[in-house]
Amino acid sequence: MNRKKHHYKKGFIFLLLSMVVLLSGCEQMVVFDPKGPVAESQKDLILYSLIYMAGIIVVVFAAFAIIVVKYRDHPNRKASSYKPNLHGNKAIEAVWIIIPIIIVTLLSIPTVNTLFDLEEPPVSSSDKEPLVVYATAANWKWFFSYPEQDIETVNYLHIPTDRAIEFRLASAGSMAALWIPALGGQKYNMAGMQTVLYLQADEPGVYDGRNSNFNGEGFTEHTFEVYAESGDKFNEWVSEQQETAPNLTQKKYNKLLEPGLVDRYTFSSTHRDWVQHGTLEDMDYTIERFREAYETNMHLENDGEQTNNEH
Amino acid sequence: MQLDEFFVTGEPLIYGGMVAIALVTSAILFILTYFKKWNWLWREWLTTVDHKKIGIMYILSALAMLFRGGMDALMMRVQLAFPGMNFLNAQHYDEVFTTHGTVMIIFMAMPFLIGLMNIIVPLQIGARDFAFPFVNAISFWSFFFGAMLFNISFVIGGSPDAGWTSYTPLAGAAMSPGPGQNFYLLGLQLAGIGTLATGINLMVTILKMRAPSMKMFHMPIFTWSSFITCFIIIFAFPILTVALALMTIDRIFGSQFFTLTGEGLPMMWTNLFWMWGHPEVYIVILPAFGIFSEIIATFAKKRLFGYSAMVWSIVLIAGLSFLVWVHHFFTMGAGAFVNSVFSISTMLIAVPTGVKIFNWLGTLYKSKIEFSVAMLWSLAFIPSFVIGGVTGVMLGMAAADFQFHNSYFLVAHFHYVLIAGTVFACFAGLVYWYPKMFGHKLNERIGKWSFWFFLIGFHVCFFPQFFIGLDGMPRRIFYIAPEWFTLNFISTIGAFGMGVGFAIFVYNIYYSFRYSERETTGDAWNNGRTLEWATAAPVPHYNFATLPDKVGYDALLDMKEKGETTFDESKLEPIHMPNNTGKPIIMMGILAFASFALVFEWVTLAAIGLIGTIIMMGIRSFDYDDGHYVSVDEIKRTERAARGLNDE
Ligand code: HEM
Ligand SMILES: [Cu+2]
Ligand SMILES: [Cu+2]
Question: For this UniProt entry, which segments traverse the membrane (chain B) (predicted)?
Answer without folding.
Answer: 12-35, 56-76, 96-121, 133-156, 183-207, 227-253, 273-292, 304-326, 332-355, 376-400, 412-434, 446-467, 487-510, 586-619
